[in-house]
């Protein structure tokens, strides 16, 4: 699955294209295993991280800056999994791009640091036991990596005259859809299930509207936090892969049929991804270079004194 449908998206993010990968399907159909895998069989996320750093190692003529964030959407509230005190965060728009206010972004230098941040975030994620799964994901999570890069000059230094490429990679682990009657448990689990189903229903409506190909149609992105954040990935400037998971059990034919209809609609959507290049001081890579240069000058002046 990774080699056939995902690797080209990961590679293109290193060239400045936005990319998104997520799994959709009912509870206990294999979404989290597909995205995370295990030690013996790594999933989409660890394979993507491995390839990103492999590409950096094999591209000595560019320098890179990687930033990582990890958020959870639980009961329609956004929580920062890298800093859990940041709860109920708000979505804003700047320069026609959506961003989550006060979301932690950590700079990472190697795959081990990324893996540690993933583990840290997973420890704060909402999970629970239902009638369908002993460890069911009760929230949606979005693991995002912002990738900035620019060319080096002949002296192996940053070329200040070159454009900076900035891309966003979203790796999304959705909570599972299910009938509330299948959940079991207490009122809290029923509440969780209602919010999950509503956001997934909105995602389905958005996909259905986009598949119609009507440029003038109203797309209800604002009806859920999930579709609001993923708006550029679903119908805009991104290369997107949606992996639909189903269970072979005959007890869930209705859910399987619904997932397959979702997949058929999603396949008809045509995004128009473009390389994201910035020729300004907005990119952090250039800002950090200027700050470092300024600090070096200050240090030299102090030494003279």
Q: Your description of this structure?
A:
The protein is an alpha+beta fold and 305 residues long. The protein has a single domain (1-274), classed as Kinesin (3-Layer(aba) Sandwich), CATH 3.40.850. It has 9 helices and 12 strands. The protein has helices at 2-13, 31-36, 44-57, 111-122, 187-211, 225-229, 231-235, 253-267, 284-304, and strands at 19-25, 62-74, 77-80, 91-94, 97-100, 106-108, 127-128, 136-137, 140-151, 164-173, 239-245, 277-278. Strands 1, 2, 3, 6, 9, 10, 11 and 12 form an 8-stranded mixed β-sheet that branches. A two-stranded antiparallel sheet has the order 4-5. The protein has a two-stranded antiparallel ribbon with strand order 7-8. Strand 2 and strand 3 (77-80) form a beta hairpin. Helix 1 packs across helix 3 (44-57) and helix 5 runs parallel beside helix 8. It is globular. Residues 128-135 have low confidence and may be disordered.
